[in-house]
């Protein structure tokens, strides 16, 4: 649905807003100052020690409403969306303290805002004004423009300070005001805790690897690490280990994130080059819409890294990052049962896998780890790159577990780019939730062997499905696909309690 009122039709509302704006300015300025400063602390970059307002007024220019729409509801609430623009003349000065001990007075100038304000009046009650509370938020990520200026100095005096301040401001606006986040304003006294943002499920994330990262170092290679979040709060942000001197790092790290709204939220990943004592330099970033993840199904992603998630001007390749996502709602959804019904101390993936039918004592299940036999059938490959003068290759496949020592190898199939092997190999896996299967394709040569490409695979999908067959793109190669079949035979054991304590 589009906005049903034009700017001309809203002239009366804008005229009234202009009249009361001096009073709104005074009240809102004080409210923003007292409520936003503590929020800054949750989103500030590690370069910034503190951010405080030394001056804050919203200026003399009132926002203009350009459209309004009343959305359909179930009868328990009224939702109104107001389209607005604001090219204001506020006087905002931030007192910035850096972690280097430097104090900077920074002016926020040239503010422009375009967005849609969502107001949800809920619950509807039988007394004036007929609703108990108002939920306020921005319907979606809004266009916010501003410039920063150091009073009496230059922003370039400290590398990275401008980006750190801008990032903190944008993260604060997005994560506190943008739907599904909301501010609840009680109108009639009552308990409105049910209107608060609540987790609806858990997203399991495996940060597997990255490849072909841009090198940020003049000597040697970048030392990449990754930062992941759904909400950019410090306590909800995950940071990987740093892999030194490697543009194709393998992290193999597992994280869990609470999800509040699967339809609108997204997972953000940013890959940095660790510069030691200096501020880390960003290599690239990417984003996954959680709406693309089907509950209870493993989804594999290769994401292209970009310079900026908002402005796609820079098209230079920055590498790719490999993620695996698995979302489970707390409530029953589309036939997916709630894996958290029994509050046992397992990772949520283990909770999915451990059911009453396994026959374990429910009180002992927290001591179970995922041990078993992984059977891998290397069926065939297609469209391998030519490796010899005749335009053919003599391919074979090497398989091994990242945490294991034993390597398995197929036979060599000569003079073909579309080999068929149909060979099965068994691996005893000690900790399947945290291991990786490495599948490498090589070209046999009279005097040795030449590397063609590889696939790095988690075991999550075979743990959940028991058996499956799929085609995988050969990474690091100009072309090529591998056809593989997987089967999992569990052999559960119990954790050593003394070791885990």
UniProtKB/TrEMBL annotation:
Return one Gene Ontology term, BP aspect.
Answer: lipid transport
* SUPFAM superfamilies (UniProt xref): C2 domain (Calcium/lipid-binding domain, CaLB)
Q: Looking at the UniProt record for this protein, which Gene Ontology cellular component terms does it annotate, in alphabetical order?
A: cytoplasm; endomembrane system; membrane
Q: Gene3D superfamilies this protein is in?
A: C2 domain
Q: How does it sit in the membrane?
A: Single-pass membrane protein
Keywords, A to Z, come to:
Calcium, Lipid transport, Lipid-binding, Membrane, Metal-binding, Repeat, Transmembrane, Transmembrane helix, Transport
Q: Tell me, what is one Gene Ontology molecular-function annotation carried by this entry?
A: metal ion binding
Q: Which residues form the C2 domain?
A: 179-303, 354-472
Q: What is the protein's given name?
A: Synaptotagmin-5
Q: Where in the cell is it found?
A: Membrane
**What exactly does this protein do?**
May be involved in membrane trafficking.
SMP-LTD domain boundaries = 6-188
Name the family the entry cites. Answer: Belongs to the synaptotagmin family.
Which Pfam families does the record match to this protein? Answer: C2, SMP_LBD
């Amino acid at each position: 649905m589009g906005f049903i009122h034009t700017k001309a039709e809203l002239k009366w509302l804008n005229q009234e807003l202009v009249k009361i704006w001096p009073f709104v300015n005074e009240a809102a300025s004080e409210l923003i100052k007292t409520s936003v400063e503590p929020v800054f602390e949750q989103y500030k970059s590690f370069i910034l020690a503190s951010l405080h307002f030394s001056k804050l007024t919203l200026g003399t220019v009132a926002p203009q409403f350009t459209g309004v729409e009343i959305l359909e509801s179930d009868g328990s609430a009224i939702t109104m969306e107001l389209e607005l623009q604001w090219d204001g003349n506020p006087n905002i000065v931030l007192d910035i303290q850096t972690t280097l001990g430097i104090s900077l007075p920074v002016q926020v100038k040239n503010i422009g805002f375009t967005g849609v304000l969502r107001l949800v009046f809920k619950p509807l009650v039988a007394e004036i004004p007929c609703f108990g509370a108002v939920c306020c938020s921005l319907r979606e990520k809004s266009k916010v423009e501003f410039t920063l200026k150091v009073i009496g100095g230059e922003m370039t005096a400290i590398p990275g300070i401008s980006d750190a301040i801008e990032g903190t401001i944008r993260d604060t606006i997005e994560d506190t005001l943008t739907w599904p986040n909301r501010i609840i304003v009680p109108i009639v006294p009552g308990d409105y805790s049910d209107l608060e943002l609540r987790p609806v499920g858990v997203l399991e994330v495996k940060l597997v690897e990255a490849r072909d990262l841009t090198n940020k170092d003049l000597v040697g290679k970048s030392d990449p690490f990754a930062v992941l979040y759904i909400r950019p709060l410090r306590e909800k942000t995950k940071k990987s280990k740093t892999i030194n001197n490697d543009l194709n790092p393998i992290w193999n790290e597992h994280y869990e994130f609470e999800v509040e709204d699967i339809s609108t939220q997204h997972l953000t990943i940013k890959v940095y080059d660790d510069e030691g004592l200096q501020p880390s330099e960003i290599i690239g970033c990417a984003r996954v819409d959680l709406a693309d993840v089907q509950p209870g199904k493993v989804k594999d992603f290769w994401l292209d890294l970009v310079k900026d998630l908002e402005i796609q001007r820079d098209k230079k390749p920055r590498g790719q990052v490999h993620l695996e996502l698995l979302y489970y709602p707390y409530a029953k959804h589309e036939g997916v049962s709630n894996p958290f019904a029994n509050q046992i101390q397992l990772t949520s993936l283990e909770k999915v896998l451990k059911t009453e039918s396994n026959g374990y004592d429910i009180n002992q299940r927290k001591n179970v780890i995922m041990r078993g036999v992984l059977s891998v059938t290397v069926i065939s490959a297609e469209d391998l790159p030519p490796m010899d003068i005749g335009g053919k290759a003599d391919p074979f496949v090497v398989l091994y577990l990242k945490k294991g020592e034993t390597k398995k190898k197929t036979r060599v199939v000569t003079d073909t780019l579309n080999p068929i092997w149909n060979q099965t190999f068994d691996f005893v896996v000690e900790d399947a939730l945290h291991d990786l299967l490495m599948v490498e394709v090589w070209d046999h040569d009279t005097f040795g062997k030449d590397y063609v490409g590889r696939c790095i695979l988690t075991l999550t999908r075979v743990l959940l499905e028991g058996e499956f067959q799929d085609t995988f793109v050969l990474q690091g190669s100009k072309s090529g696909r591998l056809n593989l079949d997987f089967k999992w035979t569990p052999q559960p054991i119990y954790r050593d309690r003394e070791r885990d304590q």
